[in-house]
Amino acid sequence: MSPQIEHPMRLQNFRCAYGASLLAVCLVTASPMAAGQTPASVEPLAIAADDAPALPYDAGALRLLVPSARTGGAYALVELIEQPPYRTPAHVHPQLDESFYVLEGALALEMDGIAYRLPAGSYVDIPRGTVHSQGSADGQPVRLLTRLSPGGFEQFFLDRVELARSIGRDHHDFQQRMMEIVRRYPQWLGPAPPAEE
């Protein structure tokens, strides 16, 4: 039986199985559904480990497991391997829900002012508009299965892969070029609002 993940105003079926020779087999709904609706079409999706190579980027490495083009834009699935001391600045996703399943290592997460230490096997759902930041909790790499819904924001990570091919984080132009990438995605990524006094 498929677990159902409820979000305000929508309901979507999502089921994945994992195995040694196959990274993931997922059944997905082509687009988000309103409560009470049934999926119009569900397409099986199998991604072999070799079909999603690791791509280095400024925070570590990533694997684009399921691009949003394969889900009708409903979501994208990305494996992130964040290397210490990388930690995201506090930020929000105005029109994006994000979730993490910790595969290896421990995730340090601050969400809405509350600090969490999430070891392997932990899950977190970050609804759109929620202030958060994350990185390794213990100085070791942390590997995350990241779901972005709706899809499209995976391009932000692919742009960072391209940036990492040309310059590193320690290059004097890195911050300026990284901010150029951030500005391409205002609907999906923004700074945390100023703290209330």
TrEMBL record:
Keywords: Signal. Residues 87-145 form the Cupin type-2 domain. This is Cupin domain-containing protein. It holds the Pfam family Cupin_2. Residues 1-34 form the signal peptide. It comes from Luteimonas composti.
